[in-house]
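Example for tutorial group B:
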C-alpha cells in the first residue's frame, strides 16, 4: 500500500485504466450481452498498452536516475533496485485486474448459455 501512495500520477492512471475491463467484466457477468463482450477486447488492449507504457516510464525514470549519479556504491544500486521494483507494480496489478476480468467474462459466458 505504501508503494501506491508514492506512485506517480502516470502510475495511478495506469492502474485506473487497468480497472476498466474489470468493471466491464462485472457488468457482463451480471447481464451478458454481445455489446458488453465486444467492449472487453478493446478495453483489455488499452489496459495492456497502459501497463506496458507504465512499466517503460518507470524503467526510464530509474535509468535517468542511474545516469545522473556518479556514485557506483552498493547503496546507489539498492536504490535503483527499489525504483525498478516500484516500476513493476502497475503492470503487475493491471495484469491481475485483467485476469480477474476475464474470469468474470468466462462466468458471464457460462451464464449466457
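The residue assignment follows.
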Amino acid at each position: 500500500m505504501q508503494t501506491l501512495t508514492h506512485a506517480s500520477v502516470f502510475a495511478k492512471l495506469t492502474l485506473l485504466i487497468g480497472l476498466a475491463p474489470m468493471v466491464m467484466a462485472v457488468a457482463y457477468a451480471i447481464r451478458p450481452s454481445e455489446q458488453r463482450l465486444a467492449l472487453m477486447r478493446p478495453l483489455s488492449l488499452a489496459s495492456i498498452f497502459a501497463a506496458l507504457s507504465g512499466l517503460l516510464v518507470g524503467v526510464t525514470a530509474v535509468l535517468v536516475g542511474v545516469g545522473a549519479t556518479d556514485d557506483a556504491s552498493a547503496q546507489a544500486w539498492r536504490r535503483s533496485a527499489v525504483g525498478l521494483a516500484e516500476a513493476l507494480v502497475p503492470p503487475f496489478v493491471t495484469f491481475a485486474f485483467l485476469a480477474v476480468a476475464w474470469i468474470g467474462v468466462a462466468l458471464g459466458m457460462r451464464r449466457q448459455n
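The chain has a mean pLDDT of 88. Compare this with the pattern of hydrophobic and polar residues in the output above.
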